[in-house]
Amino acid sequence: MKIMLILPLFMLNTCIVFGQQFLNGSFEKTTSKSCGINLTNADYNSIMANSIAFGIQQSTDILNIAHCRVGKVTTAQEGQWFIGLDTFLSTNTSNAISMELSDTLIKGKVYSISYYDCAVISQAMEQLLVGLSTTDSTFGDIIYTSTLPDTNSWTQRIVYFTAPNSGKYITLKLKTGQQQRYIILDNFSLNYGTDVDSDQELIDYKLFPNPVENYVTVELGEKFADFSVSIINVMGTTVLHNNIITSPNPVVDLSNLESGLYICKLSKMNGSSKYYKLIKN
Description:
Number of domains: 2
């Protein structure tokens, strides 16, 4: 199983907060007793909780390895159930579903979604479009376009996005191609949210390079003795801390950190701080 991390650009200015969750992110809340293949929207909606099918192509699958063969896939990623989306060859249209959240997202906050995808036929791979909508039967605003999934192997996607609206529904459909496409999906979770100030240009200090391989330089200028630098992971834990007392352009060693998203916190001794997004390759 592979893990793919997707990081749109944004700027952070406060601590991590979180409350919303998918109400049926693993598709386990279903009354289906066997695999449902090529379900109409009405049939899907009658047996799947907290999820609505609304696409023009009415053929969503509700799948369970115990009841049907799905390529070489031998398990779901959470529980027993997962779903399949496809496109229709003659009309080049896709299934589309919405997935309900426990509460609306806040426009302008950054959130993280994790999910798993897989293709079961190499010739039928397709990209997934993920959206955020205020209603359960419209796609809303697109927040992510996936790369092509692996064949017969689940891949975890971790997607960071800034909420474009105050939506309560994550929406899914395929980016249709010139022939019939099909992928399976499972185990959606909403991981956290942070406040965003995308208009603020923090030009006082600079971090470079960013993204960074191992060493990042912090350009502080003349009053470097008044600062400390902290590196914080996405869970809010400080994983590295340096007091700046010897250089106006200190170099911070990140070589022992795993690849991913971090927050660089620059703090004055008087208690004021500024926050920067930092990506470690």
